[in-house]
Amino acid sequence: MIHYQVVPESPEAHLFQLELRVDDPDPAGQCFWLPAWIRGSYLIRDYARHIITLEAECLGQPVSLEKLDKQTWRAQPCQGSLRISYRVYAWDLSVRGGHLDTRHAYFNGPCLFLAVAGREQEPCRLSLKAPAGVGYGAWRVATGMPVEAVDERGFGDYLSSDYEALLDYPVEMGEFESVVFNIDGIAHRIVLSGRHDGDLERLADDLGKVCRQQIALFGELPVSSYLFLLWVVGDGYGGLEHRNSSSLLCSREDLPHVDRREASEGYRRLLGLCSHEYFHLWNVKRITPEPFLQADTRQEVYTRQLWVFEGITSYYDDLALVRCGLIERDAYFELLAQTISQVRRGSGRLKQTLEESSFDSWTKFYKQDENAPNAIVSYYAKGALFALCLDLHIRLESKGAQSLDDVMGALWRAYGKPGVGLPEWGFERLASEVTGLPLAELFQLGVRSTRELPLARLLQPFGVEMHLLPARSPTDKGGVVQEPPERPRPQAVLGAATRQLAEGIQVNQVFDGGAAQRAGLAAGDLIIAVDGLRLTETQLQQRLARTPLGDRLPLHQFRRDELMELQLEACPAADDTCLIHFTDPPSRQQLQRLAAWLQSDDGAD
Q1: All structural domains of the chain with their residue ranges
Q2: How many CA atoms lie within 13 A of 292 on its CB side?
Q3: Strand order in the sheet with 140-143
Q4: SS (H, E, C) 448-468
Q5: pLDDT of residue 600
Q6: pLDDT at 474
Q7: Which pLDDT score is estimated for 10?
Q8: Phi and psi for 579 in degrees, rounded to 5?
Q9: Any residues with CB less than 8 A from the CB of 262 and at least 6 apart, and which?
Q10: What distance in Å separates the CA atoms of residue 132 and residue 23, rounded to the nearest whole number?
Q11: What DSSP state is assigned to residue 126?
Q12: 322: which residues sit within 8 A by CB, 6+ positions away?
């Protein structure tokens, strides 16, 4: 067994003290390594850069360590128990790293735990110690790791079946609140850290509905307990899946409140985030790409299937909310319209396929720059839209007898439950086998080409009309309208993402084919005057909106320290904003199809 100990040694300096003990090290010299990335987030993060000190000793005598590469060390040969002591700096307030201060401690295994090379399959014991000092007497521990022997606050010894399992149990220490709900006798615990005034009982009740919906989809719950670790901050958002838990970050205003029964936009976003990470309990943690089973976390692992695991999950996270009654039909389609608008507003969708987006996640999706909208497409957002297309296509072609739900259930039984990796084109083959439908043409269009998805054609038989029009305002993200929308008068827009600064308007991104790009504006430019006037961001938008199309406006901007003058031609906004309108009146068949899709009885009789 491999032994680890973690102590929040210096919360004020953000330092964890760790000890690793190997009782029978390699007589030729034991090697150790630290992961470079964390599963579920496909970016090389080089966690070893946060190791501040690293020492070794055997039988009370120092042992020299040789660094072999950025994350690997070798101890000189020794006889007897080898102890590695090291300190790790933790000041990354995210779900992917480690964070320690005088208020709490949080960490993911890849940030802290050195692997013993060649011994990764052995069981691991983890001892968690409380920080020293009277100010930490109320600190407790929350983790999904199996317990060996702990005190009433959770400090003590935990066990993991192997090193890979050890990495997959995040740990929270500190003063926190918690609430528990049960599903078929299986405890689901929500732990909230950070100051808040949220309604925990309502959150537990609502998450219970979401979890039951997803369990029903797959037919079983593959864990004996589940933990939601939720850190509440002033402004934040993020989530990461684990084998029996999820790490979550949200803003205080996203929580539900006792005096506010209607789900706010922020609470809807939080429920969708929790829904997304819980769905990963099946889809990625157990239904896993085959390449992920064959490799460790020292270097990139490539797959063309991330759209299956993140895109399909993104499709079901909001769908679960409407299916279990937490949001209304119109709220669901508002979210769908916003996703369609998001994808349509990036010309990268015309240059990168879903398979390419998945494969290039390491270098493009997780390393986005100012040109990202023009170069890449999100396998989350477009993946969700393709999952929608696939679901509706199956429902229509099978005359309602089958759906994507059936495919996901079969995927779980064939790959997730037995723990068999999903081959690179296994999902497409399985979908065709389960439904008996010829799906190759749809997959070719949606996954391996950059052609537009047939969303409008597939939504119409369900009584849902999709319209693409110019944005009605700078903040228009798309949504649901009660009347068929009319095409607005063409107005000019800048064609760039900007930010208001005290000294001018900063250009953050320039979109393909827009007025800004045609004029020669670039990311980083600072606009200081338009047509001889200093304008705010809002005033610039208003000025362009009333400028006749084709007219030119003189524009002055700084690029670095150089003053430049450009001619800005008034160009119309693109048809990139999705508005959804429901067929009025819908046919009986449309109502039945819509009700079956959303699993609602509304209007089905």
Answers
A1: 2-174, 177-260, 290-458, 492-572
A2: 24
A3: 98-100, 104-107, 171-174, 140-143
A4: CCCCCCCHHHHHHHHCEEEEE
A5: 56
A6: 83
A7: 96
A8: -120, 130
A9: none
A10: 28
A11: E
A12: 328, 329, 331, 332, 598, 600
> Residue 23 gets which letter from DSSP?
S
- What does the block give as tokens for 150? 């702990």
pLDDT of residue 589: 97
Secondary element (H or E) of residue 277: helix 265-279
Alpha carbon distance 240, 517 (integer Å): 36
Cα torsion 101, 104, 105, 106 to 10°: value is: -120
Q: Which CATH number fits domain 492-572: 1.10.1510.10, 1.10.3880.10, 3.20.20.70, 2.30.42.10?
A: 2.30.42.10
Please give the CATH topology (third level) of the domain spanning 290-458. Neutral Protease; domain 2 (1.10.390)
Residue with tokens 């606050």: 153
* Residues 177-260, CATH architecture: 2-Layer Sandwich (3.30)
Strands 479-480 and 577-582, by their bridges, are parallel
- CATH node for 2-174: 2.60.40.3650
The answer to whether the beta carbons of residues 26 and 118 sit under 8 Å apart is yes
Q: What is the 3-state secondary structure (H, E, C) of 235-255?
A: CCCEEEECCCEEEEEEEHHHC
Say if residues 19 and 84 touch (Cβ distance below 8 Å).
yes
What 8-state DSSP symbol labels residue 546?
T
How do residues 570-595 score in pLDDT, each as one tens digit? 999 999 999 999 999 999 999 999 99
Give me the residue label for tokens 């949606």: 446
Q: Beta 245-251 vs 82-89: how paired, if at all?
A: unpaired
pLDDT beneath 70, residues of the chain: 600-605
Q: What is the 3-class SS of 464-493, one letter each residue?
A: EEEEEECCCCCCCCCEECCCCCCCCCCCEE
CB-count burial class (<10 Å; 0-12, 13-18, 19+) for 37: buried
CB 182 within 8 A of CB 114: no
> What pTM did the predictor assign?
0.96
DSSP state of 353: -
Which strands form 115-116's sheet, in the order they lie side by side? 65-69, 72-75, 31-33, 115-116
Q: In which residue are the tokens 């089905």 written?
A: 604
Cβ-based burial of 351 (10 A; exposed 0-12, middle 13-18, buried ≥19): middle
Answer for the pair 567, 555: CB distance below 8 angstroms, yes or no: yes
pLDDT of residue 514: 96
Q: For residue 295, what pLDDT is reported?
A: 81
Cα atoms in the Cβ-side hemisphere of radius 13 Å centred on 268:
18
Rounded-to-integer distance, Cα 601 and Cα 605, Å: 8
Q: How far apart are CA 559 and CA 536, in angstroms?
A: 18
Query: Do the beta carbons of residue 281 and residue 222 sit within 8 Å?
Result: yes
CB-CB contact of 365 with 346 (8 Å): no
Question: Is residue 302 within 8 Å of residue 359, measured between CB atoms?
Answer: yes
423 close to 290: Cβ distance less than 8 angstroms: yes
The pair of structure tokens assigned to 149 is: 């022997």
